[in-house]
What does this fold into?
Amino acid sequence: MMQVGKSRTPNLEIKWMAANALCLPFPGDTFEAVVSGFLLRNVTDIQQSLKEQLRVLKTGGTMVALDTTRPAENQLRVLLHFYLHVIIPNLGRLITGEAEAYTYLPETTEAFLEAEQLAAYMEQAGYNQVGFRRLMFGTIAIHWGKK
It folds into this structure.
């Protein structure tokens, strides 16, 4: 993903870096904001990752995370299951020729925390003013919190 990002932004002065989300290579109180996309469902220790992001935030800084989430229990859950396990993999296969990545997504979505649970983890890690908003029929959530 970083290679694609680099190729799309050749004229921007961006320092690209791959790092361990459980042990970030930055001093504490460095950033005004920390933003991640589909990171937390892929780390081995969510709480440690949240604490690391909090550590590198300046006081008053904001953390925002976009990630998948299990849909809430409701009448749409059966349709969402069909969408996640049939529509997404088949569309992915038709468009890209690859089905595996689009099978991985629904599996990790259903195995990950519910949005309310992730918000509770954030509060336990020390974030204030924690909130979230569900999108995409409840399968995606944007979480935020302040240091």
Q: What stands out?
A: The mean pLDDT is 90. The radius of gyration is 17 Å.
